[in-house]
Fold Exonuclease SbcCD subunit D.
Amino acid sequence: MAGKLKFIHTADIHLGSILHLSCDPREDILDLVNNSTYYAFEYICSFAIENNVDFIIISGDLYDKEARSVRASKFFIEQCERLRENNIKVYLIYGNHDPLTKETDIFHMPDNVFTFDSNNANSIDYFNRDGELAARIVGQSYKTAAESRKMHKTYVVPDNSVYNIGLLHTQLNSNNKNYVPSTSIELKENVNIDYWALGHIHKFNIVNKDTPTIVYPGIPQGRDIGEEGMGGIILAEVEDKSLINLQYITTSLVVWKKVEIKIDEDKENIPENLSDLEDIMLKKAESIVEEYNNISKINGTIENPPLKGFVVQWIISGMGAINDIIKQSRDEIVQVLTKSLNDKLLNNLPFILSDSIEFKTSTFDLNIDKIIAENQIFREVDKVVQCCFRDDKMKMDLLKAMGDVYEYSDDVENYNEQKLQIDEKELSEIILKARQLAFEKLLERGD
Ligand SMILES: [Mn+2]
């Protein structure tokens, strides 16, 4: 039936990038660290075949680097061959991480793969398996890593007699002009487009539910703690030119998770030593797995979700006497505790990999507002802290004092790989942590 259509919308696969762990991973986990982005894409293709979709659209950043690796290119082609055997087409634009600078590919692309040009926007007709015109796909690739062209304004389709899909790698509704600046209003102005398949933002987001549907699928496999949570793709179904189903399908093999434990939250169970603390962490790990099992039961449509495990970054905070133990040998405790947790949790399915443990505990009840109000010395320290927040020059001096390894940046896409990035939020956290440390030291002195 001409009016029926089923497709997958994905983006930001970043083939070839590895998982950026803080720890040295155990050998049996190395394969996942190096290959999860590949496995996630392989899963997407298997899912497409099992669900008999018409086509897959990829809205940019298929590859991680401008210099596409030979291995990633070969892998992509092999997967597309599988799709070809199953009569599934692939429509693809390139983004800021894999711009189309040269018009040549390293290998021959199979004939079921359609790549959009970087000079002009093009519209491609999709004919379904009965040979009927069933959709049009319009798109344009990046030519360079930064693109200020408002490509979407040149997306033209002849009419709205079929379902029209626009592929756009864009930073929507933002002041940043480097990534095809667009607004929801501009997208809606193109009345012939029914579905805007966006890419670039690595988080799943339905920007507009009604027509036109505007969606970011997010990254299928997160690569660091900044890409926390279950990554996935969109499965869309269309009947008689209207979207009848839009489903988020999780595709991550490894899920990143920040977990905070407040040691003074459960007053009956404040840990007295490291064994107590480890017990609390183990219980928490159990609840992560339980929560996941419950979710997959609810969404139980997929038989074999690819998830293998979680990478957890622990934050231990709150007040308790255990802080005296922690203070004395923080680094050694992190090492011993991490190893012990990994020995117990890394062999399970899904596994829990404890990647890092950060202690933010204190011995005293640091009611900071109260201390500042009551004591002149603390007030003076806080004045300096407040200056750091207000005075940009002081802030930058502070950053300089922390060492050359850091660089201030709030653009996650466009950074110097030689340096560690610090944004406003992290810098504020460091300043507040410094204040806490100073207060603790002062309180230790007693008077
Ligand atoms: Mn991306």
In short: The chain has a mean pLDDT of 91. The longest helix spans residues 274-298.
